Amino acid sequence: MPRLSSRTQAIVGSPIRRIATLLDEARRKGDIISFGGGAPSLPPPQEVVDYLADFLRKAPQKTVAYGATRGMIELRELIAEDLKKYWNVSYDPKEEIMIVNGGTEGIYLALGAILEPGDEVVLIDPTYVGYAEPVRLLGGRVRYVPVKVEEDYQPNIEDVKKVVSPLTKAFVLLSPDNPTGRIVTEEFVRDLVKLAREYDFWIIFDAVYKHISYGRPTPWVDAFPGARERTITINSFSKEASIPGFRLGYVTGPAEVIESMEKIKQYVSLAPDTPGQIAMIKFYESGIKERYLNEIVIPTYRKRRDLMYKLIKEYLPEARTTLPEGAFYFFVDMRRYLEAMGRDDEEFSNRLLYRKSVVVIPGKYFGEMGLGHVRMTFVSEPEERIEEGMKRISAYISSYL
Amino acid sequence: MPRLSSRTQAIVGSPIRRIATLLDEARRKGDIISFGGGAPSLPPPQEVVDYLADFLRKAPQKTVAYGATRGMIELRELIAEDLKKYWNVSYDPKEEIMIVNGGTEGIYLALGAILEPGDEVVLIDPTYVGYAEPVRLLGGRVRYVPVKVEEDYQPNIEDVKKVVSPLTKAFVLLSPDNPTGRIVTEEFVRDLVKLAREYDFWIIFDAVYKHISYGRPTPWVDAFPGARERTITINSFSKEASIPGFRLGYVTGPAEVIESMEKIKQYVSLAPDTPGQIAMIKFYESGIKERYLNEIVIPTYRKRRDLMYKLIKEYLPEARTTLPEGAFYFFVDMRRYLEAMGRDDEEFSNRLLYRKSVVVIPGKYFGEMGLGHVRMTFVSEPEERIEEGMKRISAYISSYL
């Protein structure tokens, strides 16, 4: 076999994807309770399902035809209206909005459009596993800003200043956050934009959980003065419309960066999924989205979140965590238990799956600051099973102590 | 705005995608006849459409759920059976087959998995526009092997030897070919594999048109001794199942290269489209694929091909071309006309669209050897419109001469 590229030796496979595979296998064997992968457990809106099924039967060829690389203009126009409505920011649907094959492609294309070899990208630690590796794949370097449970995982601008330099090409901000559920403060965004202007770096604002919030909405980076010309915002339909299998999202940014991303996209995926786009056009019709989010998604997830919070306090009184303001996850500092058990977070998670058939994600996967933590999602299981899972975790720990 | 990456300045946007956009606009205005983009003009098999629509209604959440990065194992098992049946080559569905988001992603991931900066990739000239740019995006260099209409666009192994060197990392072979319709000879593949072993380079075999052949099937590179450990084969459902909008294909290769491609794919697109995979599981069921190809696709396209060939001889007697053995295209040497008209192929194509509302693709887009040629697809229009289009081209040329 001829040599492979060294580029893939520098990156690691996503541990969460590995767990998804393990989980698939484990599921066949027995009663697994998953607090693992953050996949929506609700079906998409019924109106959208019916519309797409009808469309497919009536116009099969049109449903599965090639589309433009930037996506359907009708959908981009609806997105512009929607962003205006929710965040009061105007984007030109032709020049400043582009449909992508999921938030993952959005991040990859955004980094591809801006990074030179050696450029630095600042990430918050802990953070989503899907930033550092594409930065490395594209020749960039990663710098980290630590956050702590004691400060509700809120980043401090002074810590950002410590790692920012003329080498900084971008800062990645995920809000609401995975794994911590944090929604960043207005003040932090204001200071970050100021710093970005001073050092002339990009802000990649990952807003894939934007509609999954239980109180105040996330600040919208582009709404801050001076942010527009240096912000690329990543959006996904996976969480807000519960259609992760369509791999569909969208990106907003300055026309020049959208143009660069489009060039790369032509050779990475050619175009986004057409049936998914047809479905999402319906999603924006006459209040479907609002009803779905306000009457189904948010109430369902909020109940589960509140229950899990209560149960963490009850069953894991020595653990420390913070009530997530958004997204799907609790990031739980388990160090007091783990030290007593003499296990690290990965050993704990592996044995918990093996012994009690409960899936949690080791905190170390999200960064050095995640050591001794686990991530538990409340999105995948209904309430009675959340309770059952928490009991099992507690019983497992008790068997040790 | 902070600086953009220089990587996108080195590549050009796909001219055919640009034409697709122009065409969309032109279509609204009038009666455009398209011999342009090679998008299938047939609906997918009815059984597949019905199955997917039912599946979506019955199990919406499952239809649009996240899947594994390599794709559904059931589908990969069916692909393995299918490849065994058609080409008598065995692939391990777990380790040697991976579902990708269309042939485009397959090519990008394959190049990403093997290329180091400065590595050379050998392409045939003319060729599909989607190879040179991703090679450059990934830091590689392109070398060309010219082919000519006089030799039915068949590559000569002696010409390949002239550009192959220790810097050669891969050779890209598309058969059946776009834009020429050429199916490569057994002898050429045998010699190419020998050369690949001698110089230790990869063969990227792009087989996206594998089922679109009007006589003999394309040789299958992996079937040649010594080829398996150095061949990555790109397949697409877009052409054979007429579902380009689902962006779905698959790749076969040695386990190690599939693993590297999977790593990259986690950060490029996470996973392939789930609904499309469900549809393709049905496609392989009980003769659906065979009936669709043998009774609908091939007879329809063959009739159009034969008609267009006859009409080229009749209306463009001074043009030179070759009857395509596969794929969707005629690559037509128009130099005798263009010289008399004092136009190059791009001017000709632009003015033909403007004056006569007929789309053809300038040959220069496919490489230097394509200068003075045009590509005309017979896949998009029914027979009476192929005739009408050819009449318009002839009338346009006559108005000059």
UniProtKB/TrEMBL annotation, chains A, B:
GO biological process terms on file: amino acid metabolic process
Cofactor: pyridoxal 5'-phosphate
Gene3D superfamilies linked to this entry: Aspartate Aminotransferase, domain 1, Type I PLP-dependent aspartate aminotransferase-like (Major domain)
Domain (Aminotransferase class I/classII large): residue spans on this chain: 31-393
Database matches in Pfam families: Aminotran_1_2 (PF00155)
Classification via InterPro entries: Aminotransferase_I/II_large (IPR004839), AspAT/PAT-like (IPR050596), NHTrfase_class1_PyrdxlP-BS (IPR004838), PyrdxlP-dep_Trfase (IPR015424), PyrdxlP-dep_Trfase_major (IPR015421), PyrdxlP-dep_Trfase_small (IPR015422)
Sequence similarity: Belongs to the class-I pyridoxal-phosphate-dependent aminotransferase family.
Protein name stated in the entry: Aminotransferase
Native organism: Infirmifilum uzonense
